[in-house]
User: Fold this.
Amino acid sequence: MKNRKIVAICSVMLLISMLALPFSKAQSAQGNTSLDEKVKKFLTDHDGKWHDLNVPAVDGQTLYDLVIKGNYKSALEIGTSTGYSGIWIAWALSKTGGKLITIEINESRYKTALENFKEAGLSEYIDARLGDAHTMVKELKGPFDFIFSDADKDWYKKYFVDTEPNLVVGGCFAAHNIAPPEQVNGQGQAEFYRYITGLKNYQTTVNSSGAGISISYKTAAK
Assistant:
């Protein structure tokens, strides 16, 4: 009789453990779905309201796709503005298990970005920093597997030179407002584009569907 009770208790415990695993997975999936819905609602509610040096929606989608495709986990954004591009990047990082460091020099835009990150439900995936990227990027140790440059264009080449040593092989360096080679770029963008396309250990293309994003993959250390 005693043995029967032990067997019965063990059977119940086994059943509970079998039910617990799919339940926890369902909870996790539901949590991700909830975040997706929250981000989508935020983007929909704020559609057409991003006027402070933010990227257009099509470029936000491109950044999201790049992070997902590369399964990137350690991202750096130079130039937060009020957070639109950061939201797209962080949303992708929430799926890869990563985090974003983003830098903004303007305090007003920085504070607005913090509010937007919170409202979108992405604060835990973002380390937002207030300061001058000219000096701050030199102090970052990395490593990074995704870098997005969208600050002062005349500094684009310097941002790249300062952060490139911390970009892993296989990583991606993207820069905003870069036109295709046959079109005219601003002086800073043109200088950066000529420089990066001249590097043998980078493969660069330009996505011109929005405001123009150069996409450069690091193929070797040097």
